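Schema walkthrough. Field components (list of strings):
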Amino acid sequence: MNSSNTCRVCGNEISPFMSFGKMPIANGFLNEIDFKNEYFFEMKPSFCENCFAFQLIDQPDAPMMFNENYPFFSSLSKHMQVHFKNFADQLISNFLRTKEDSFVIELGSNDGIMLKHFKNSGIPHLGIEPSKNVADVAKKEGINTISEFFNENLADHILEKHGKANIIFAANVMCHIPDLNSVFAGIAKLLTEDGILAFEDPYLGDMLEKVSYDQIYDEHIYIFSASSVSSLCERHDLELIDVIPQPTHGGSMRYFITHKGSHKISKNVHQILENEEKNGFKDPTTYIRFKNNCEQSKKDLVSLLEKIKSEKKRVVGYGATSKSTTILNYSGIGNDLIEFISDTTPLKQNKYSPGAHIPVRSYEEFKKNPPDYALLFAWNHSNEIFEKEKDFEKNGGKWIRFVPKVEIF
Ligand code: DWN
Ligand code: ZN
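Field assembly_structure (string):
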């Protein structure tokens, strides 16, 4: 367990502003025989008043979360495939002078969903992906990948072997890594003088506004704001030069970072920092309000599901997301309220959801026996899902969502 009562970024004292209670490994889908040995930790978020890093007090050790059984494969979403193609195109056209003489690195490259576009353009590249089974998928596609955790040490090895990188990028990865100082120190060494770090993660502003507290789970040790990213950069002589909001994963932010003084700072950066200040991101009372909103959202969801149960209607979960582990365990929702969760990932199917132990079934079962209500756990993929579920709606099926508020629609 990685526990800290001091801020992992700046060392300031921190304390939790709430507890979500006992949580299992969010992607620890399990068999019945493993119920008795299931691992739990108390999930308590906190906020650093010095460097503004929103973080968990405790996080399970990395190999408990990312290992050869990691069940999340980015390429399963068609919309995310398009998103990452666009991200790759943006980086190639804006930040690479030549293709062949460049070198790019992706941290947490998963199944190669983004890096393959660099490979296909003949750009020397390296993916770093600690979950071996996922890294193997990328390797099979001919994408150069090593299965390691990135830190300053690994950066030294890469530097020795490959030299400096023109672009380092990461998507939905940085917020998973507890020792960001080691990661940023490594990045500062690895980036060429005019190199660029581009990364994106769920944005604190969206989470506070939409009460999407399901963004918080073991893997997501941080939820970033521009203020916290900017403060982290300063510690490493780096500089936040641009930010671009993204619609993915329920509202994300893409950050562009360089060595200090090497690029012009966009006005977006000044604007977002001002907005965050104005909207109370640095004010502890904002987080007390968030806590109250989480409690209300949980009450609303449980009473809606209980009402539906009393009407003897069927509810099935749609998407066994990591996020659903937080919703189900914080709200105490189990198999009595949700019949099963439908998911397209073979590694999750015919297992049970972490902690709540709701059976996970294939998508074919959802199609064969559609419920009265589908609880939209994969709400961040709404557009993609609604496109393919027109029949469900036509046949009288209804959706339940809990972001931005609990409702049937
Ligand atoms: O940061 C992270 C993000 C990027 O991905 C990781 N820590 C883990 C993971 O989080 P998640 O599990 O909450 O991600 P998704 O993308 O919301 O998961 C969607 C789940 O729903 C997958 O298991 C696939 C499934 N799904 C489905 O059954 N039918 C997804 C779609 C689009 C569908 O149509
Ligand atoms: Zn701090």
